[in-house]
Design goal:
Layout (H helix, E strand, L loop, with lengths): L1 H8 E7 H4 L6 E3 L10 H12 L8 E11 L2 E6 L1 H13 L7 H7 L1 E2 L12 H11 L5 H8 L4 H14 L1 H15 L5 H14 E8 L5 H11 L8 H16 L4 H33 L3 H6 L9 H18 L3 H11 L4 H12 L18 H20 L5 H12 L4 H4 L2 H9 L4 H20 L5 H15 L5 H14 L2 H9 L6 H19 L4 H13 L2 E5 L4 H6 L10 E5 H7 L4 H8 L5 H11 L2 H6 L1 H15 L2
Parallel strand pairs: 2-4, 2-5, 3-6
Antiparallel strand pairs: 1-6, 3-4, 7-8
């Protein structure tokens, strides 16, 4: 019985493009779908596949496409990217059957409101703009293609894509066709005919009784050549069904809000990338240095925002549980991926598959406004950090260390955003939070060979406290300070006495702390100048230099080459140029460095090499003490 019902609801059919794009059919992309997002690689791959029709193949197969009936029209569940690109390709090939008007009608992106009526969303405006003006001007082409630097070209392409992805991909279609020598009118017409008659897909047609989320589950199971759904796409689809199920919000408006949020994230990231480029240019000393600069980017994604929201939702439920029940929530839910968490969350909320671990979540309201608030926290913090405005220099340094230089950075780099989301301002409490959390991560990164569960459990407790509406920033900071006091100075001392350079994390953190202290001694009283100095540490790609490294050095060197006394932060470009030269030759190259720690070493080296080797043990003791003092 079930098999018969499925066969009635899901109807697969093999068709060629001529049948698929029959002008009598009406297609639309539902509002919860992701926008058109193909890039140059996708375009080139598609046209490479289609070009085989002119060579050794009589037909090509482009995989499955999935549609769902809706008021005498067909929702495009899977196939939007391919159909959109194929229509632009056919339009360029001047196939009379695929004029501008038909393309506009077939790809009208509208909200799925009552009776099929809805509000056109942003992506449709871009498509209509493309129809009016498809070609790039010569000035735009020069701007797009005029960069030899791969990173700059990538950033410029991203800006063009955000501006109008259809125009950009139309340009790539033209370029790809020229590459396979389809240039004349006759060649274009023959290619269009081949594509229409000899390109096949399997259409999977779903009846209207199948719900949106079921349609997406089917898509996920059978997706072959299409772009896989990301969590941001899945979240949007689930929110559409959630809004319909709850009946409190207009589903169309909810999806429009999410689309606007996603667009704002892309726009903000473009601004951040441009800002970071200016910082790179300011810090570069030449072409080679410019190409090698490394930066911990302040960009953020939809996934980042959903991750913060995941912790917020979990913490709210945990705060409503008794002490005995909290441990299971923390250990199971905090470690879930975004995909796994939101899939199970919506199953629980929509009463489709109740899970004991998600008890209490069905009472939660999923609010798009809260996602927007998290976005604002991310955007505001990025502006403050990049512009070096209204931020303490010590907080800036700790923030960068927390984001990129500890074993815990990948999992907890969002903590400053969460704190700012909750308490709304950057003040002494925020500074204290960032500095001390970063120091805890740095300490356990130096003293342990891997991430330890104790730290993860402690941080989960802090997250729960931040989200708790009854907690105060002072209480949270006291708990963190108390934890920092537990960090053993003896264990730290023992770890720093050994071969520090054998561990990437340990050597980077140790040498960054020493480099920071050297910069601070120069500008201790001027926060803005100190900020610029700290910024240089994180915008110039660096290596950890072994000062005495060659065989000739070993004869006079009494200490361990891999110990902290023989290590320092040095610009990447200088270090790669030095390689393993004798110390006498190295000194000349060291003078090119902008880092104060290097200048200090040069002063010592210039006082006499024999004296430098002789006093190694004292320098080792001093450097270890300096790092230990940093954690006090």
């Amino acid at each position: 019985m079930l098999q018969k019902e499925i066969k009635k609801q899901i109807i697969p059919t093999l068709v060629n493009l001529n049948e698929l794009l029959n002008s009598q059919k009406r297609y639309f992309v539902p509002i919860y779908q992701r926008p058109y997002d193909w890039d140059e690689w996708n375009i080139a791959k598609l046209i490479e596949t289609l070009s085989k029709l002119n060579e050794e193949k009589r037909y090509v197969f482009l995989g499955n496409m999935e549609f769902r009936e809706e008021e005498n029209m067909q929702q495009i569940i899977d196939g939007q990217q391919r159909i959109t690109t194929l229509l632009m390709l056919l339009n360029y090939l001047n196939s009379e059957a695929y004029s501008d008007n038909i393309i506009k009608e077939m790809l009208k992106i509208k909200a799925q409101g009552e009776n099929g009526n809805g509000t056109i969303i942003d992506d449709q405006y871009k498509f209509e703009e493309f129809i009016r003006n498809k070609e790039f001007s010569s000035k735009e082409l020069a701007e797009l293609e005029g960069y030899s630097n791969a990173r700059l070209r990538k950033e410029k392409t991203r800006n063009f894509k955000n501006s109008n992805v259809y125009r950009l991909n139309y340009h790539y279609i033209k370029t790809s066709l020229k590459n396979i020598n389809i240039i004349t009118k006759e060649q274009k017409q023959k290619f269009a005919t081949n594509i229409l008659n000899n390109t096949y897909v399997v259409t999977i047609n779903l009846k209207q009784d199948i719900q949106e989320s079921e349609a997406i589950d089917i898509f996920d199971a059978i997706n072959t050549t299409g772009k896989p759904l990301s969590i941001k796409d899945i979240f949007k689809i689930k929110m559409y069904e959630y809004s319909k199920n709850r009946g409190k919000n207009n589903p169309d408006k909810v999806i429009q809000s999410i689309n606007k949020l996603y667009n704002k994230i892309e726009e903000k990231n473009s601004q951040i990338v441009n800002n970071e480029s200016l910082i790179r240019e300011e810090e570069s000393t030449g072409k080679s240095e410019y190409n090698e600069i490394n930066m911990i980017s302040e960009t953020f994604s939809q996934d980042d925002i959903l991750k913060v929201y995941k912790f917020i939702l979990i913490s709210r439920v945990v705060n409503n549980k008794n002490k005995e029940e909290r441990a299971n929530y923390k250990s199971e839910l905090f470690n879930m991926s975004n995909d796994n968490f939101y899939n199970k969350l919506f199953l629980q909320i929509l009463d489709k598959n109740s899970k004991k671990q998600f008890e209490g979540f069905e009472k939660q309201e999923i609010d798009v406004q809260e996602l927007q608030d998290i976005h604002e926290a991310y955007a505001n913090l990025a502006d403050i950090v990049l512009n070096l405005e209204n931020i303490d220099a010590e907080t800036y340094f700790a923030y960068k260390m927390l984001k990129g230089y500890t074993r815990y950075s990948w999992a907890y780099r969002f903590l400053p955003v969460l704190f700012l989301w909750r308490f709304k301002k950057i003040d002494t409490n925020f500074n204290c939070f960032v500095i001390n959390i970063s120091k805890i991560f740095e300490y356990y990164t130096i003293t342990k060979k891997q991430v330890i569960n104790y730290v993860k459990t402690f941080i989960n407790d802090i997250i729960i406290q931040i989200v708790n509406p009854d907690s105060s920033p002072k209480e949270i900071n006291k708990q963190i300070k108390d934890e920092l006091k537990k960090c053993s100075r003896k264990i730290l001392h023992n770890e720093l006495q050994g071969e520090v350079s054998n561990t990437w994390w340990k050597k980077n953190i140790s040498c960054l702390i020493l480099a920071k202290n050297a910069e601070k001694k120069c500008e201790n009283e001027n926060n803005q100048k100190l900020l610029k100095r700290y910024q240089r540490l994180f915008t110039r790609k660096f290596d950890i230099e072994h000062i005495c490294a060659t065989g000739n050095d070993d004869k006079r060197f009494r200490g361990n080459k891999n110990a902290i006394g023989n290590l320092m932060l040095l610009e990447y470009s200088i270090n790669r140029n030095i390689k393993n030269d004798d110390i006498e030759k190295k000194i000349l190259k060291y003078t090119q460095s902008k880092f104060e720690i290097v200048k200090n070493e040069v002063l010592l080296l210039n006082m006499g090499l024999e004296n430098y080797y002789k006093n190694y043990e004292m320098r080792q003791i001093d450097k270890i003490a300096e790092i230990e003092a940093y954690f006090d």
